[in-house]
Design brief:
With 163 residues, the chain is mainly alpha-helical. The chain is built from seven helices and two strands.
Length: 163
């Protein structure tokens, strides 16, 4: 059964037969999968007036045992400093997170969820899980461990290749 990635490889083969495009089998499918999942998740999260980045910050804070610094949030969510700052300002303006002074660092801040932030993430997360379950429902249950292992290997390869 062919898909769009097969069509892309075939087109490149006709155009540039000397190129080895085998890597497109993995990278193309990962990118296309991520784009499709992201699009559907963004649609769902828009109903909660959240971007994916804002959702990620709320989720990180919900899982944390204590308030976190903006730097820790940036590291965990893999976001840049400016994008983390923008997201925190948005969440703070909507009273979903609270910023307080860091007692261990006079210049630093700690970020915590407010009760409204807890309520929002506790409502949004199960709905996102339902959506994601629907999106992967076409993968037979018995094959999912193999898919998970293959994706784990992709991530390990990416992590080890990073500069």
């Amino acid at each position: 059964m062919n898909d769009d990635i097969d069509d892309i490889r075939s087109a490149w083969h006709h155009l540039r037969p000397e190129l080895d495009t085998a890597v497109v089998d993995v990278v193309g499918r990962v990118l296309r999968s991520a784009a499709l999942i992201t699009r559907r998740a963004d649609e769902l999260l828009a109903g909660f007036a959240l971007t994916r980045g804002e959702f990620d910050i709320l989720a990180v804070l919900r899982r944390a045992d204590a308030p976190l610094s903006p730097g820790a949030l940036r590291t965990i969510s893999l976001a840049t400093g400016p994008s983390t700052t923008k997201r925190l300002r948005s969440l703070e303006s909507r009273v979903l997170v609270d910023r307080s002074a860091n007692p261990d660092d006079g210049r630093g801040a700690l970020i915590a969820l407010t009760p409204a932030g807890i309520a929002l993430i506790d409502d949004a997360f199960p709905r996102l899980l339902d959506l994601e379950r629907t999106l992967v429902a076409g993968i037979p249950e018995a094959r999912r461990p193999a898919v998970v292992q293959a994706l784990r290997e992709v991530l390990e390869s990416l992590d080890s290749a990073a500069p």
